[in-house]
Amino acid sequence: METNDKQPSQSNSDHALPSTEGERKVLFPGSFDPFTLGHADLVERGLRLFDELVIAVGYNERKAGWLPVEERIRALEELYRDEPRIRVVSHTGLTAELAAQLGATAILRGVRNTEDFLYEQQQAEVNRCLTGIDTIFLPTRPELSFVSSSIVRELAHFGRDIAPFLPQALHYRLPL
């Protein structure tokens, strides 16, 4: 397993201006390690609700990622290269502060179950207190409710095929 022990370089799109008046921009944060069909479904549904969607790949220096952050960003930029309303950035700080910096009108989060909801609800309240930005929760479609990055990593660890859980066009150099 390759570890990423240094901070990732910032994508050129990290330094964008806040959204223009009337534009509805949403921030979709996560580690996306790896980006799954569940994540892709939330992106697709988020685009129906917002004018622009920013996928923020989080970097936590206290945790070694399964895939390097740069690889996740590269793969997502390639996956969504034909969708001008999607931008991919990396971040290391507080999600609420990034959302405010980017001019996001909301933060998008998916919830698979009540445990997810309770955790996300606490995070949403903190984020709202810090910046006034609300979080939009979208329930996971039932057929994807069991898919998570941690399950995909576990399957890969045991040599199982993880392709059924990843967007077909997503290309990673998967760790062995």
Reconstruct the topology from this structure:
Blueprint: E1 25-30, H1 37-49, E2 52-58, H2 69-79, E3 86-91, H3 95-102, E4 106-111, H4 114-131, E5 134-139, H5 149-157
Parallel strand pairs: 1-2, 1-4, 2-3, 4-5
Helix pairs in contact: 3-4
Question: TL;DR of this structure?
Answer:
The protein is an alpha/beta fold and 176 residues long.
Main traits of this protein?
five-stranded parallel sheet, 176 residues, alpha/beta, disordered N terminus
Q: Name the strands of the widest sheet in spatial order.
A: 3-2-1-4-5
The average pLDDT is: 86
**CATH homologous superfamily classification:** HUPs
List low-confidence stretches: 1-19
CATH topology-level name: Rossmann fold
Give me the secondary-structure category: alpha/beta
Instruction: Supply the number of structural domains.
Output: 1
Strand content bin: 15-25%
Give a count of the beta strands, DSSP E runs of length 2 or more.
5
Termini gap: 6 Å
Percent helix range: 25-40%
CATH class division: Alpha Beta
Q: SSE order in H/E notation?
A: EHEHEHEHEH
Q: What composes the largest sheet?
A: 5 strands, parallel
What is the gyration radius calculated from CA atoms? 16 Å
**What is the architecture at the second tier of CATH?**
3-Layer(aba) Sandwich
Work out the helix count. Answer: 5
Shape, principal axes of CA atoms: globular
